[in-house]
Design a protein that fits this description.
Layout (H helix, E strand, L loop, with lengths): L1 H16 L15 E8 L8 E10 L2 E3 L4 E5 L11 E3 L7 E3 L11 E10 L4 E10 L7 E7 L2 E2 L4 E4 L3 E9 L7 E6 L3 E2 L7 E4 L6 E10 L5 E11 L1
Length: 231
């Protein structure tokens, strides 16, 4: 089973590295954005299913109930589509992998093409589903602001530079990738951790902090926190 996990991991990582990956958004959120797309689990066994889940955010926090429609595109190098998507379920779209493929390979990669309906525009997206062995998504375990762990809400002061950091459990020892986003201030290195969040003088009120941790095969976990900016 371990060899099959490695085969699935290598196949998915090679395609994502070639450019068939999901959306990446800017660090500063000024309008509704799709920060991440995941299938749960992040890889499935033959005959298995995975739900498609979205992390959509705005200046006032995460947005729930965003509709999306998906279909299975052509396979790698123009091969036939692999599996099917049911868009009619109450819980959202669900991908179903076939019991086997004609080549009898131990691993395969389905390519899903979708349309996400944001409040003022539609977004076209692509998501890959590794097939061959179940692999779970990463799990965010801790997010800190200035060294203090966040619970439900945080607080920072205007005019300060604060350090953000995240710890996550990522299957198969994958080092993972991190994306940060905020609704106020600046993040110069938003694709790394730790990162410095610069809050301008005179800022105040509530801001939102978002973080996404991704695995090399496209798995993801995310978190969102309201942050009170004080004087």
């Amino acid at each position: 089973m371990r060899a099959r996990h490695v085969t699935v991991f290598a196949l998915a990582a090679s395609l994502i590295a070639a450019g068939c990956a999901e959306l990446k958004s800017p660090a500063e959120i000024t309008e509704p954005e799709v920060l991440a797309i995941r299938v749960a689990p992040s890889a499935v066994e033959f005959g298995g299913e995975a739900s498609l889940e979205l992390f959509v955010v705005d200046t006032g926090g995460p947005i729930s109930g965003v509709s999306s429609t998906w279909e299975v595109g052509d396979g790698i190098a123009g091969g036939p589509p692999i599996g099917a998507v049911d868009n009619a379920g109450e819980g959202g779209p669900v991908y179903a992998a076939p019991d086997r493929i004609e080549s009898d390979e131990e691993a395969a990669l389905a390519i899903l093409e979708g349309t996400i309906e944001l409040p003022q525009r539609d977004v076209e997206a692509v998501k890959t589903v590794p097939i061959g062995a179940r692999i779970d998504n990463p799990t965010i375990e801790r997010v800190t602001v200035a060294g203090e762990p966040l619970e439900d809400q945080g607080a920072v002061a205007a005019g300060e530079d604060v350090t953000l950091d995240v710890e996550a459990d990522i299957p198969l020892g994958d080092p993972g990738d991190v994306t940060w986003a905020v609704t106020a201030g600046e993040l110069e290195q938003f694709l790394r951790t730790p990162v410095t969040w610069s809050i301008p003088e005179g800022a105040g009120g509530e801001a939102w902090l978002y973080v996404v941790v991704r695995s090399a095969i496209g798995g993801a976990d995310w978190a969102a926190y309201p942050i009170d900016i004080g004087p």
